[in-house]
Amino acid sequence: VLSSASHPRTPHCQLVDVMQTLLALNDDVLLLIFSFIDGNDALNLCLCSRRIYLLAHPRIASDLECSSPERLRLFHAKLFETTQDGVRLVRHLEKFTIHAATFENSTESEDDDATDFSPFGADFSQASLIGDILLEAEDLRQLSFDRTQPCIAADHRVGVALSAFRHLVNARLS
What we know:
Blueprint: H1 11-23, H2 27-34, H3 39-46, H4 50-56, E1 63-66, H5 69-79, E2 95-98, H6 127-136, E3 142-145, H7 148-154, H8 156-164, E4 170-173
Parallel strand pairs: 1-2, 2-3, 3-4
Helix pairs in contact: 3-4, 5-6, 6-8, 7-8
């Protein structure tokens, strides 16, 4: 008979022990624990088991940082997908950062003389996507939003959403 002292446990065995201990907790406790993790950690947890996936999946979209028109379109599409429990991921969004680059023109001008001298120099044609997100993000707690005013001018729903947040603790609007 081999003793455990002569054969130390491998990291894989230790991980299995941790997962078994984690899975022994009830769903309410796991949801509380998962409320402290960020999107990347939630994504990794989702790979562990079906039960953990169902509990951790909403945390993937809890903290988003948008820095391009392409990312805005991707985020919009993903946030409005319905999860297995029938809730859209946008309902779980807690922290949303919208950088000025989100509104940059997708196509760059090759003509150096065709510089846009507007105060914002950007394309707000996708402001409606931000309006959609902000109107549905009921649990938003932190918002950092570059170029807020021209976005509100492009879609009044952005302003309506900003005035309706109940859980917003920290807002930086510029």
